[in-house]
């Protein structure tokens, strides 16, 4: 039977188009396929040991022309023209610079117009395109799946493998369809969709799967919003997330610096139009979600699956039947300093973080700016706004968004990962509570002892005004807290 | 990579589910640029608590970690595996591993043995009642042995073979370099390249 003739899912199509060599053997004993990699993204944290390995083995970098690097994870977001204060951060950055020079890799350094979070930079340059295989030593590489690419987060030894061979040995994944039909209510965003998906299937629910997000609610989303969804696929344990490319995708890619042009463009679009799951193709699992019913979502616990609608209460351990879930809830409440039964909207925060590869693109900044424009920030809340890339920062400034944030009393920072993981000085203090548009609410993720609630940019903005977890609709229906 | 067919060492019971890689090695330790020397970083947050299992004898000299389900979730950082290995662990036992962590382990010569939770409960009891009991993880027979408990474990054939042969990934792939070159020759012309660099100006 030819695999090409039977109906295929999107993920299978991209996979099959990249097989360099089929694994030998059958069934359980089958060896992995060797898969060609179209684009390899590098940053300072997971690359030094890979470069070191290459050097130690005397191996060249096979395709510098399919490789690009940026500085993001521990770059400062203030005083970027000064030497990086933290010695180890500085060493990592300088090591990346030396390595890129030695191996001929294109690098966008701090201060460069194209510098930024690796997953914001790729799409923005037009390097992320439909049907590609994209890898990076970073779990949120799944972001690029929004273009109908198969985008995988990999470990450092795989980074070295791709450097040396431009390929990866991979076992085929299972596929899961996430069907989201309906229309989102105003104030509900793609962030709420993905938080609801993770709450539904759990942080392990996607394990071994490539998720394909489908349905009318997904089709109506912009590319920025689609990236937010695919970005967090990894938080459901999935290997990758994908969305079939369509006119919205083509429109986004067209005219970007590395987009195909002329005849190449026509040939590319011709190829890209094939990139959808065929009628009759079978998924290994399916999940359904009704977009009409969704509300702004927020996490209360210490993993991204511990989330509920903002209008609900913090759950209590007794609410869970499973012994492990009950214990996890107890532990999470303890860490988060919360009591079961508390309305989420009564929870006061100290910090609001708008940023990270989940929500730091133009649309995110615009959405938040629209909510806060002309409003006053709660005086006890600090708000940090970190654009995903230097380019986003420039664009936002051209639109005057920076002024809106500054007038509001928020800090307008330079691009990078920042408080998403607290590797640079942007960290929460012990016990500090944060409404964050990032993707992980793990213990200590944003700083030792810091407490994270994952939210959408709209909820982040409304929360900065009221000082308690809020959505924009709360601003209309209730008087602002004074 | 060192060959590993069977390993016997002191078992360390870690009664904790969903141990994510931020707990295994907090982000601040990722700034290093070397491949070794991460032993102090392992569970750094938890090790500040003197009651933590690795702060107790004889568990501090353990080499087989027996953890709750969903071990290694979260960030893809391979440092998690390096930290475990640098500390002296040769094998981790759990009912379920995060995919990336499992993949990273196989490549670094750390055995990730998937054992049923009911067996893990028994092993935990044995290790807690008799601290210092050794656990044997045998790849040949795919079994773990602890006191009188013997339990099968799951590991995929390919990873098992590589662990037992001590085979390095890149060398394996480069045996097929011709296939890679052939593939490259037929890639569509419209696929993007990063060089020469273009920007929006
Ligand atoms: S913004 Fe956060 S999640 Fe995204 S790449 Fe940076 S550290 Fe990772």
From TrEMBL, chain A:
It comes from the Bacteria. The lineage of its organism: Bacteria, Bacillati, Actinomycetota, Actinomycetes, Micrococcales. Binds 1 [4Fe-4S] cluster per subunit. Its cofactor is [4Fe-4S] cluster. The gene is leuC. Pathway: Amino-acid biosynthesis; L-leucine biosynthesis; L-leucine from 3-methyl-2-oxobutanoate: step 2/4. SUPFAM superfamilies: Aconitase iron-sulfur domain. Heterodimer of LeuC and LeuD. It holds the Pfam family Aconitase. Residues 12-467 form the Aconitase/3-isopropylmalate dehydratase large subunit alpha/beta/alpha domain. This is 3-isopropylmalate dehydratase large subunit. Keywords: 4Fe-4S, Amino-acid biosynthesis, Branched-chain amino acid biosynthesis, Iron, Iron-sulfur, Leucine biosynthesis, Lyase, Metal-binding. It catalyses: (2R,3S)-3-isopropylmalate = (2S)-2-isopropylmalate.
UniProtKB/TrEMBL annotation, chain B:
GO terms for biological process: L-leucine biosynthetic process. Keywords: Amino-acid biosynthesis, Branched-chain amino acid biosynthesis, Leucine biosynthesis, Lyase. Its EC number is 4.2.1.33. Residues 1-116 form the Aconitase A/isopropylmalate dehydratase small subunit swivel domain. It is an enzyme of class 4 (lyase). GO terms for molecular function: 3-isopropylmalate dehydratase activity. Pathway: Amino-acid biosynthesis; L-leucine biosynthesis; L-leucine from 3-methyl-2-oxobutanoate: step 2/4. Catalyzes the isomerization between 2-isopropylmalate and 3-isopropylmalate, via the formation of 2-isopropylmaleate. Belongs to the LeuD family. LeuD type 1 subfamily. This is 3-isopropylmalate dehydratase small subunit. The gene is leuD.
